[in-house]
Amino acid sequence: MRRIAIFLFLAALPLRAAPATFATRVAPALEKHCAVCHGAEKQKAKLRLDSYAAIVAGADSGPVLKAGDPKESELHRRITLPPHDDDFMPSDGKPPLSALDVKVIERWIAAGAPESAEFDAPAAPVVRVAEPAAPDYLPRLDQARKLATTLGVRLVPRSRVTTDGLVLRTASAPRQCDDALLAKLAPVADLIVEAELSRTRVTDAGLRAVATWSNLQRLDLARTGVTSAGVAALAPLAKLESINLTGTKVDERGVSALKANPRLTRIWTFGTPVASSP
Amino acid sequence: MLDLPQVPAALKREWLELETRRHFLGRGSKALGWAGLATILGRSAPHLLASTAALPDQRPHFAPKAKRCIYLFMAGAPSQFETWDYKPKLAAMFDKDLPESVRGGQVLTGMTASQARLPVAPSFYKFAQMGKAGHWVSELFPHTGKVADDLCVIKSLHTEAINHEPAILSMTTGNMFPGKPSLGAWLAYGLGAINEELPTFVVMTSKMPVRTNVQALSNRLWSSGFLPPEYAAVSLRAGNEPVLYLQDPKGVNRDVRRAMIDGVNDLNRQLFERVGDPEINTRIAQYEMAFRMQTSVPDLTDFSDEPASTWELYGEKAKEPGTYAYNCLMARRLAERGVRFTQVFLRTWDQHTVLPERIKVMAGESDQPTAGLLTDLKRRGMLDDTLVIWGGEFGRTVYSQGTLRPDNYGRDHHPRCFSMWMAGAGTKPGISYGETDDFSYNIVKDPVHIRDFHATVLHQFGIDHNRLSVKFQGLDAKLTGVLPSRVIPELLA
């Protein structure tokens, strides 16, 4: 919903010129979208886009900038191709630059690509940035995927927004997932925002590991062997919003213990000893 | 050798993208020259040999509200007058002629175009406000009325098609011409499986409660169109064996079966090496899926673990394989196991004649299991991320087709407005959206084209409908097509 609201707001917003500089508007966009492959760690095409000097230096095939002429600048061409074009950047489905970022880069090049002088650029919209759900998963995504594959579960990004966290998915083979497995997820514990553990072999012992997943928002424990004692250990999960205890042995004691979790608003207890399940 | 300076660079690029290994090798001796062309165009050979059916980035564009969808498709088009679009003023207009100003010169179908009169037919059934939200609910839906506060009712859907086949295709694929991927296939392609042991997209067609005005259903409605075939639905049969030949014959154990499939897969891989047809890989994938379903399906269809309350919710008919009630329960079991998209078809809502009697049968078939499914999903904590949709393919006319009596009339097809509802997965509960005129003939407020409806469904799955596209026939083809469409924010919580 917020996304739509922002979109409509942008659409209605006149592209008002406001003073901007390379450091305030161009560098952050390049850092966010390009530096993964053209930065300190990787230098694809021998190009770095993480400093003014490096951008001016260009790639192995030549300069990427023609000051004053966006249309003749490879940097601009690559980010304005159709997204399915093989030359489109960022490549491999990485999140593209926003229309606003593209416009800013175009204006910057048109203004002569100044290193520190101001240029006219569309105003940055005032957007209230939502609290990130988890740390950026991108640097650890390969590690998380390998770990999950080794263990026989899946860790999938909740979305392309790299601070939206990972979802722990076990539905393909729930009976392979047990307490010991959960403990082995420690290296990516802070990335897990949602854990689908229904029908797994998880018991109270496993919940001690889950209790360390500090960014967990949603936890599905339906038809597992957990009890009130185990659920009480989840108290440290300050971001937990919903927990599904359908078909478990959790009773009133477990539900009252969960009252300590400040954001927990949805608790499902169908098929448990908890009286008058909804 | 070949040099084509007159061909624009963009066209060369596209040509190369569309070339596959199949074409390359099928061309025999000419392939070498073609490879030379590739060199001229500045491409390395491995790229040229790749299939065009690359796996998409299956991360949603933004955090989704829906993980799964259960689409209860009321094929044949339920009348809005007896279901969700209460029109009290019609009672006083019984047998009056539909004003020409309302019809606005609309072309009618051949079924009523030759009628001398278009007499107004009020609903035979009464309505009452139900729930905190005060939805007007037809007396035909007493069970659904009890869960009315969970419903997001849309009374202003509209479509172009006036006949069933194109209209159902429009609802299921976004296009009235066959050959396009269905909504379920787009979701499977765009998001991938939650449970790899079961199909991502499942279709069930229900036993028909009546045998008049039967509309054919075909796999065009759940096809993968131009997407890779593995994204088409697996259709579960109505019967004791929902998937044929899943049971191993006598004397064939799992190891033998495994060895056989490995052997067939080897042969298929050799063929793929030779001709590179991506459909061969789909075939391999289907063998593997069938093997996995040998263990996942029996557990799915064994209802002995259901508590007694299940039968109270869905009704006793849910014990009879192939009924709509059974399919609703099966849809919940599929959703529990992570099937993304389940489409249940219930046919014979096409009441051109004897509508009051026949719609009562249909509503009776649909009402309790539908409400039971909603209640069941809710109590199990699944309505939060399962989108439930109930509706048909177009609306019906305010005027009677054929003889009009207070208790007997028929209604013809009407594409200009119809009603549906959604529930769960972040849709706004307890609201009614869109308004029609007093005759439910034209939309007077907040129209929702089926493209908008599709865009909204995809949005709940974290997908921007403008960005989920594949290149086909020179277009970036997408579910919502090329005409304007938008997510309807008022439908969302």
How would you briefly describe this protein structure?
The complex is a heterodimer of chains A (278) and B (493). Chain A is α/β, with parallel strands linked by helices and 278 residues long.
Q: What does this 3D model show about the protein?
A:
Chain A is of the alpha/beta class and 278 residues long. Chain A contains ten helices and eight strands. In chain A, the strands form two sheets. A six-stranded mixed β-sheet of chain A has the order 3-4-5-6-7-8. A two-stranded antiparallel sheet of chain A has the order 1-2. In chain A, α2 crosses α5. With 493 residues, chain B is an alpha/beta fold. Chain B has two domains: 41 residues, no CATH class; 369 residues, Alkaline Phosphatase, subunit A, CATH 3.40.720.10. In chain B, strands 1, 4, 5, 6, 7, 8, 11, 12 and 15 form a nine-stranded mixed β-sheet that branches. In chain B, β16 and β17 form a beta hairpin. The longest helix of chain B has 25 residues. The radius of gyration of chain B is 25 Å and the shape is globular. About 5% of the residues of chain B have low confidence.
Defining key terms:
heterodimer, A: alpha/beta, Leucine-rich repeat, LRR (right-handed beta-alpha superhelix), six-stranded mixed sheet, two-stranded antiparallel ribbon, elongated, disordered N terminus, B: 493 residues, alpha/beta, 2 domains, nine-stranded mixed sheet, two-stranded antiparallel sheet, 17 strands, globular
* CATH class descriptor of the largest domain in chain A: Alpha Beta
In round numbers, the mean pLDDT of chain B is: 89
* Structural class by SSE content of chain B: alpha/beta
CATH topology of the largest domain in chain A: Leucine-rich repeat, LRR (right-handed beta-alpha superhelix)
Q: Which runs of chain A of at least 5 residues are low in confidence (pLDDT < 50)?
A: 1-15
Helical percent range of chain A?
A: 25-40%
| Helix-strand string of chain A | HEHHHHEHEEHEHEHEHE
Write down the CATH topology of the largest domain in chain B: Alkaline Phosphatase, subunit A
CATH superfamily of the largest domain in chain B: Alkaline Phosphatase, subunit A
Summed up, the helix count of chain B is: 14
Domain unit count of chain B: 2
Q: Strand fraction band of chain B?
A: 15-25%
The appropriate CATH architecture of the largest domain in chain A is Alpha-Beta Horseshoe
Q: Note the overall shape of chain A.
A: elongated
Which value, in Å, is the CA radius of gyration of chain B?
Answer: 25 Å
Helix content of chain B: 25-40%
Q: What order do the strands of the largest sheet of chain A run in, or round the barrel if closed? A: 3-4-5-6-7-8
Annotation field: number of helices of chain A: 10
What overall form of chain B do the CA principal axes indicate?
A: globular
Number of strands of chain B: 17
